[in-house]
């Protein structure tokens, strides 16, 4: 069964505009939610089991229940549309093609959280999308769904779109808040958490675009029904942006009980690997999650079928599993060089480190330089051990998880493909010389 909640009407002509969206059932969840109390909405979101789609998978209802509510102090909802993780482009798809889904989700979520001002913080490179969002906001306003006294309920809400300047670290929620305040996007020390002191030192909820866009469906079908779609603690549906060596790159809405094998090989999804090449490895959750070789991707180390959900992908821990993360699914065929690929990622994380924490600022540079040396055929066996040592001194030792994001790909590459690193030590030139995959072109 393939349930569609987010992309149901994606192929309807004109769905980007208010009238067509409304004619296809749009904003009926707002109509319904405004007749409920904020507490009732919170209970539905909790019952749905929705987990944050930004990467960490934290339960959304629980996050909302942590929001402090001191008397006379404003609260904020900030939608994280930074989406800078290589391989991830599903939020862009939602905002570009069905922007009212997000606006509808923001209205319901803001009403539930008691915020009168909400922000969408969007990565600078998505230069054309703020116009689409602002148009949708204006249309919602013209139709009485935003502004003062929404639908005569006495509830007021304004949504503002803020463009980032193109820094990956600004996707981390506290760096995002700093940037939104007009400062350099350096992550903050936690605690205090944003739920207590966030934007302008006021209680704030930061949620991913897809998370908030899922809220209208929860209100429409009820939290209990939403929870029935999925498996275990992976409820609802998930957007996956698939790229790399596959026949049909793109954004797919999947059920969590879909096997990884079916996702890669069936015509409905990725359509297999071009030119009949063999699957070598995959990074299923955006560039920062551990790479898994084909033999551990389709089945776990215990021979169980692997499914596209939070629990199944992480079976075996980092020794033999990985993470669903943000759902940026990158496929590598047999021609791809894992050393070159890991070097490309290391260069990215080194470039994007904000520089606050020494292990990340210095360590990411070391990772990149050692990987480059090995890739260029100038490495030694000791360099592989040094790489392992450096990554282990970054993980868990920084203010924000960008350090982990830089360390995990290197650790997993050495863990599963040490022989390929050794091959590079003994062979001066990388035979694959395949530059194509390294760009993760967003399609
Ligand atoms: C370096 C870094 C980059 C991140 N980038 C994003 C991003 O682009 N979008 C996003 O939603 N979350 C991103 N996150 C996670 C956020 O900090 C935060 O957990 C998320 O926005 C919470 O939303 P959710 O609960 O709806 O997933 C990033 C985290 C880190 C450490």
TrEMBL record:
Keywords: 4Fe-4S, Flavoprotein, FMN, Iron, Iron-sulfur, Metal-binding, NAD, Oxidoreductase, Quinone, Translocase. Residues 339-384 form the NADH-ubiquinone oxidoreductase 51kDa subunit iron-sulphur binding domain. InterPro entries: ComplexI_51kDa_subunit, NADH-UbQ_OxRdtase_51kDa_CS, NADH-UbQ_OxRdtase_suF, Nuo51_FMN-bd, Nuo51_FMN-bd_sf, Nuop51_4Fe4S-bd, Nuop51_4Fe4S-bd_sf. It catalyses: a quinone + NADH + 5 H(+)(in) = a quinol + NAD(+) + 4 H(+)(out). One of its GO terms (molecular function) is NADH dehydrogenase (ubiquinone) activity. Belongs to the complex I 51 kDa subunit family. This is NADH-quinone oxidoreductase subunit F. The gene is nuoF.
